[in-house]
Design goal:
Pfam family, one: ETF
Largest sheet: 7 strands, parallel
Shape: elongated
CATH architecture of the largest domain: 3-Layer(aba) Sandwich
Radius of gyration: 22 Å
Function: The electron transfer flavoprotein serves as a specific electron acceptor for other dehydrogenases. It transfers the electrons to the main respiratory chain via ETF-ubiquinone oxidoreductase (ETF dehydrogenase).
Strand order of the largest sheet: 5-9-4-1-2-3-10
Bound molecules: flavin-adenine dinucleotide
Number of domains: 2
Number of helices: 10
Number of strands: 15
Helix content: 25-40%
CATH topology of the largest domain: Rossmann fold
CATH class of the largest domain: Alpha Beta
Protein name: Electron transfer flavoprotein subunit alpha
Organism: Raoultibacter timonensis
Family: Belongs to the ETF alpha-subunit/FixB family.
Oligomer: single chain
Structural class: alpha/beta
């Protein structure tokens, strides 16, 4: 028996539902969407949820306040698994559902499947240098799915359903915390995960002028530019949306060019899915060369312009 009977999916944004439902379809006979408020209902129907259950949003409350209604519904409807798209707030919701069910959350799953009626989930451990597999014996399995799993899930074969939204019985929020204000933050719109070619820069890059040199190569390669964590957090040379690795974005590009970065596991785990890795580093013993298909030893300030000129010729 390699399918569960009933899988629930739960996300914070409309964008997460198609991939959640696609994952649900691989492991469940029936896939039902749980939506917090109305904003995600259309996305759940559009992706073909077999049922759409709506927990009323709590006015000025927080997203996690809806957990109470979802907890009650999990007890009543008894899904075999609840697949949740990971966000900070959904981690709290997942923890509360799991606690109420006297189980725990399976975190940051990069792969889920079913064997003999039990859900198995793989997730990264030791900063991304190894994988661990957990088996949930007896339901419900409360699983937070990683961004990487959802981004790479094929949406082929999904078609809209006419499931009418069913309101879950309201349960008053018990937190006593209300939302006072929401302010927009200026964030850079970049979709590194979708880019086929990515250049990632590390602490070898020291200034805006250095970044311009790398930009020249990026333009010649038609590549997006990302970075290591210290470049985005600390040196602040690039935005946080651009850092790659275990705590940042996970990639599967055709080409990954590592420029002036040492190749620490926390960064490189974000690029292990790359088809080809090229490294440019002035230290011939830099660990990144062990992971690269092609390596160039030298100062990127000399090498990047030469490569760009060759590509543009
Ligand atoms: C819990 C935890 C989570 C983390 N998560 C992440 C994460 O998600 N992503 C991430 O990136 N990091 C993460 N880190 C940080 C990570 O461990 C490394 O510290 C970081 O990736 C190193 O960045 P770097 O390669 O840019 O810098 P360094 O390790 O300092 O390497 C700089 C490299 O540049 C080379 N260089 C210098 N000048 C030049 C030049 N002119 N030309 C060519 N090469 C040159 C040097 O030889 C050196 O190899 C995490 C750390 C922890 C503890």
């Amino acid at each position: 028996m390699n399918m569960l009977n009933k899988v629930w999916v739960l996300g914070e944004t409309p964008e997460s539902y198609a991939a959640l439902i696609a994952v649900g379809r691989r492991i469940g006979e029936s896939v039902e969407a749980v939506c917090i408020g109305d904003a995600t209902v259309g996305a759940a129907q559009g992706a073909g949820a077999d049922a759409v259950l709506v927990a009323a949003s709590q006015g000025e409350g927080l997203v996690e306040d809806a957990a109470a209604a979802v907890i009650a519904a999990v007890g009543d409807h008894k899904p075999d698994a609840v697949l949740i798209a990971t966000t900070k707030r959904m981690r709290l919701v997942a923890a509360r559902i799991a606690a109420a069910q006297k189980t725990r959350v399976v975190n940051d799953a990069v792969r889920v499947w079913v064997e003999d009626g039990a859900l198995l989930a793989e997730h990264m451990v030791f900063g991304g240098s190894a994988y661990s597999v957990e088996k949930v014996n007896g339901g419900p399995a409360i699983v937070l799915l990683s961004d990487g799993l959802l981004l790479n899930e094929s949406l082929e074969g999904l078609s809209a359903s006419d499931a009418a939204p069913e309101e879950l019985p309201a349960v008053a929020a018990a937190s006593g915390i209300t939302l006072v204000e929401k302010k927009p933050r200026t964030i850079e719109s970049v979709n590194l995960a979708a880019a086929r070619r990515v250049i990632s820069v590390g602490r070898g890059i020291e200034s805006a002028e250095d970044l311009q040199i790398v930009d020249g190569l990026a333009q010649a390669l038609e590549a997006e530019t990302g970075c290591t964590r210290p470049i985005a957090e600390g040196l602040n040379l690039m935005s946080k949306e651009r850092y790659i690795g275990v705590s940042g974005v996970m990639l599967k590009p055709d080409l990954f060019v590592a420029v002036g970065l040492s190749g620490q596991v926390q960064h490189m785990v974000g690029a292990v899915g790359a088809k080809t890795i090229v490294a440019i580093n002035k230290d011939k013993n830099a660990p990144v060369f062990k992971q690269a298909d092609y390596g160039i030893v030298g100062d990127f300030r000399e090498i990047a312009p030469k490569l760009a000129a060759g590509l543009n010729a």
